[in-house]
Amino acid sequence: MADGPAQDAVWAQVEAARLRLADLLDGLSDQEWQAPSLCDGWRVRDVAAHLTLPPTLTAGGWMKELVRSGGSFHRMIRESAVRTAREPVGELTARLRKHAGSRLVPPAPGAGADTTVMDVLTHSQDIALALGREIEIVPDAARAGLESLWRLRFPFNPRKELRGIRFVASDSSWDVGEGPVVTGRSAAFLLVLTHREAGLEQVSGAGVPLLRARLG
Are 149 and 194 within 8 A, CB to CB? Predict the structure, then answer.
């Protein structure tokens, strides 16, 4: 997606979100770094390591990771994070802060500022909520991430998976779908659309039972 004033604003939110997360990570204990995140099977350390890769890896770097993982996208994401997580936590935090303003994106169709802000904000919650800590999620930034999620077909396809439900954000202009309504903060919908059960605890409305059934 080409840069312009609107995209510049989203990239600014990406940078701010990375810096907020780096500040949170700086205050974690050794035990918290090893604690489970909201990502099934991922430690806080693994999630933080994963977030250092998009702002630092070139297209060639991603291709090398894909070849190393035998061409499997999911295996590539998992293995690259676990391998990077072996580095000292101080280096992970320093790298996230140093490259907070990076506009590098993986070589995937449609990748841009909105997919990046979605990734950063969702994973920031994976870490903060799992540890019982607070982190600011700016509603307009979350809305940009939600718009990218709603367009996705892989690895999530919410428009198909959650057909027949209307989602209405209480703190932004995001309003999509048709059917019984689910309301909540934009940050919660980032979790819901990426299959995080914690998001279900933060939404309400007549469509919640159907949403729970769809997400299993």
Answer: yes
